[in-house]
Amino acid sequence: MSSTLELASDIDLRGAFRRFYVWRDLAGLWHAKPLPKLTPGEIAYGVQPELVADSLLQLAYECTWQRSRRNVYRYLTKYAAGGTCPCSAS
Prior knowledge:
- By secondary structure, the protein is α+β, with helices and mostly antiparallel strands.
- The chain is 40% helix and 14% strand.
- It contains three helices and three strands; from the N terminus they run αββαβα.
- It has helices spanning 4-8, 40-45, 56-80, and strands spanning 20-24, 30-34, 51-53.
- The protein has a three-stranded antiparallel beta sheet with strand order 1-2-3, with helices on one face.
């Protein structure tokens, strides 16, 4: 049995949607929500609670960008909490 993502694209984009719930609405737009739910700090940092795109390839790009932004937020909060930053070890 093929998934919706496999049927919609000849390119394998499943890796781009790791940790996202992805669906297509009746109007033909692709949507994605990050998993697990965002924290208030992540939302304040600019991580979007829902992404919408016209094409699956565009949504894959946006999901990858959001996952990277979320990782940067976690990195910043970890080292702002008093941890030693590996970049300052000179």
